[in-house]
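From the methods appendix. Each design record in this collection lists the tokenized structure first, followed by the designed amino acid sequence. Records were kept in a plain field format so they could be parsed without special tools. The example shown here is representative of the layout used throughout.

RECORD:
FOLD TOKENS (496 positions):
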């Protein structure tokens, strides 16, 4: 799967040394980390200049930039000089992680003691004084092998931060009536460093019509047919319309990148879309997200932002779903309860019309949108309401999350890990039975109490640690998760 719409991280490690400590202690420990990292995880550029003062700091940062590093690990091999070491985060244009050396042996605590445990405290204090952002692991002190693992954990965080800093969200709207829950104040996007370009769906229609008879359409049709197979492609006459739309979006992306490197879309998809374009756009949207270009439904701008965050963390396809309906009790009793793992209130169904990529479905194919067919075609033989991608979402561990702005411009987010169960849904759309521990309480005291919209992003493994770290780095103060039993939410009635 090509993911050209997300960054590649080139990470460097730079060591610092307080001038009253032995510099070789920091340098030797840095070299050991690089060797441990490259043995297990991949390449890591070792900045040769060790920082003892501000002049060293400028030289070391220049060295990292000159070789193309876009993420940096600042390693306190000993106590470290807190002013130069924290200025690295200001001078380096990219995410920075701070870690510190553990002492290696009780047999060498005279010349071999680095005091970096203490130095990390001063480093954190100085970062705070300067209002500088940095990534600090949960326990940032360790041996070479420990720090190598911390650097590996930093990579998806760094990749996501670089991506968001270079992201443009392109929209075609406005949102459908009664979808004001997906509100999108622009100021917090700019605060995050994200650019936005808002367009009318009329702009999109004009661009779509301009691509009539584009010679690239036939190649996209062939790709679609090969991907869907005979069984998943009941409407071959529809493919040219959808392929024309895909080519249109790709051209718009290329022509409107401007100063940015990466794009996410948030597009209007009903009710006018199928009337004027002649199909539902869901399958095309699913294809694009599987290639690293999220297209959020219903002009959900913060949904698109969340999807892009998940793409960068996971380097895999994601989806955006309605937190849609409860699992019927009889279905729970027959298919879920016997395993003894979840209560009925731990489960729900996640659904959208057909934007979840084919690679994340048990078995999928192009169908028609049942609800829109009732609305737009009076329930008759579908034509313009064709184009969804339907099927049960495959069994998988998942992370359910969303970064959202409140109506008054304050960022908040939630992250919860769970799984898609193998339970058949017996329903329509791109849909799955989800289980998240303590979902019932989470639903009431986070999703409802904090007034989140009905859309949530889904990444297809457990990425909570990385997503949480990204959100903390971005400065999101209101961060929620599915709290375990016995840990009360602020709004939870202790007597209920």
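DESIGN:
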């Amino acid at each position: 799967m090509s993911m050209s719409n997300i960054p590649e991280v080139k990470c460097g490690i730079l060591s610092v040394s307080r001038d009253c400590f032995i510099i070789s202690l920091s340098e030797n420990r840095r070299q050991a980390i690089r060797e441990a990292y490259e043995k297990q995880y991949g390449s890591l550029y070792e900045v040769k200049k060790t920082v003892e003062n501000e002049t060293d700091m400028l030289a070391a940062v220049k060295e990292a930039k000159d070789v193309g590093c876009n993420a940096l690990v600042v390693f306190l091999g000993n106590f470290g000089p807190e002013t130069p070491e924290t200025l690295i985060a200001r001078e380096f244009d990219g995410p920075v992680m701070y870690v510190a050396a553990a002492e290696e042996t009780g047999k060498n605590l005279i010349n071999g003691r680095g005091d970096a445990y203490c130095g990390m405290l001063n480093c954190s204090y100085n970062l705070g004084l300067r209002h500088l952002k940095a990534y600090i692991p949960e326990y940032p002190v360790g041996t070479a092998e420990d720090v190598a693992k911390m650097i590996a954990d930093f990579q998806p965080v760094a990749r996501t931060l670089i991506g968001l800093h270079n992201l443009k969200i392109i929209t075609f709207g406005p949102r459908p009536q009664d979808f004001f829950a997906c509100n999108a104040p622009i100021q917090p996007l700019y605060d995050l460093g994200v650019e936005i370009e808002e367009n009318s769906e009329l702009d999109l229609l004009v661009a779509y019509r301009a691509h009539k008879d584009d010679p690239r359409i036939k190649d996209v049709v062939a790709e679609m047919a090969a991907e869907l197979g005979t069984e998943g492609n009941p409407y071959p006459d529809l493919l040219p319309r959808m392929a024309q739309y895909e080519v249109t979006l790709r051209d718009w992306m290329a022509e409107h990148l401007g100063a940015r490197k990466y794009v996410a879309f948030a597009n209007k998809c009903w009710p006018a879309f199928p009337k004027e374009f002649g199909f539902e756009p869901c399958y095309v949207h699913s294809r694009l997200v599987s290639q690293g270009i999220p297209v959020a439904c219903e002009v959900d701008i913060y949904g698109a932002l969340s999807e892009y965050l998940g793409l960068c963390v996971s380097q895999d396809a994601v989806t955006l779903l309605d937190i849609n309906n409860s699992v019927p009790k009889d279905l729970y009793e027959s298919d879920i309860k016997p395993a003894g793992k979840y209560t009925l209130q731990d489960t729900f169904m996640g659904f959208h019309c057909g934007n979840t990529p084919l690679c994340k479905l048990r078995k999928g194919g192009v169908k028609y949108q049942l609800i829109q067919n009732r609305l737009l075609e009076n329930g008759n033989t579908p034509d313009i309401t064709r184009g969804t991608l339907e099927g049960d979402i495959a069994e998988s561990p998942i992370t359910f999350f969303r970064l959202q702005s409140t109506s008054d411009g304050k960022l908040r987010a939630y992250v919860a890990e769970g799984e898609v169960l193998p339970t058949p849904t017996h329903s329509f759309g791109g849909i799955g039975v989800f289980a998240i521990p303590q979902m019932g309480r989470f639903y009431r005291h986070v999703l409802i109490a904090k007034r989140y919209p009905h859309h949530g992003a889904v990444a297809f493994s457990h990425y909570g640690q990385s997503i949480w770290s990204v959100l903390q780095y971005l400065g999101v103060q209101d961060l929620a998760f599915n709290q375990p039993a016995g840990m009360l939410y602020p709004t939870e009635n202790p007597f209920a």
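APPENDIX NOTE: The chain has a mean pLDDT of 95.
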